[in-house]
Amino acid sequence: MDKLELKRIVAAHDWLWDQWWPALRALPLEQAQRAVGGSFPSVSATAAHMVWAEATWLERLLGYAAVQAPASPADLEVVHELWQQVAAKRKSWLEAADPDARITYTYSGGTATNTVAEIVLHFISHAHFHRGQLASQMRLLGLQPPSAHLIGFFRL
Known about the structure:
The chain is mainly alpha-helical. It contains six helices and two strands, in the order ααααββαα. A two-stranded antiparallel sheet has the order 1-2.
């Protein structure tokens, strides 16, 4: 993956988040935090995990230690604010990013080294996995989740 492709795939990922935020932010706090099941019990907890994970990967890409996970699911407005900070910081980082650079980081299982491109593909795949769970959780709440897919960005 070259630098242009890296920037384009991250732009597509961010576009997909932009399709979801209006629906997520429109949820009343009670619905957002209602336990409906999944890897994380609620829409709020799932979204918080997704954004926290992206913040963690960005810190690793920048050469810092992982960020502390939130103690409890936050209001989705707070999660959205963190997302905006992560997206802006990542956009700035992308300007100088080398897809082939190797990043060594620590995680719960030890230490690993991956290329920037591999890490980007991982956090995008991770978000896709949990976005499917968000869709199911919203349906369990009687709501219609956004119908947005990564390919939609490339069709623009």
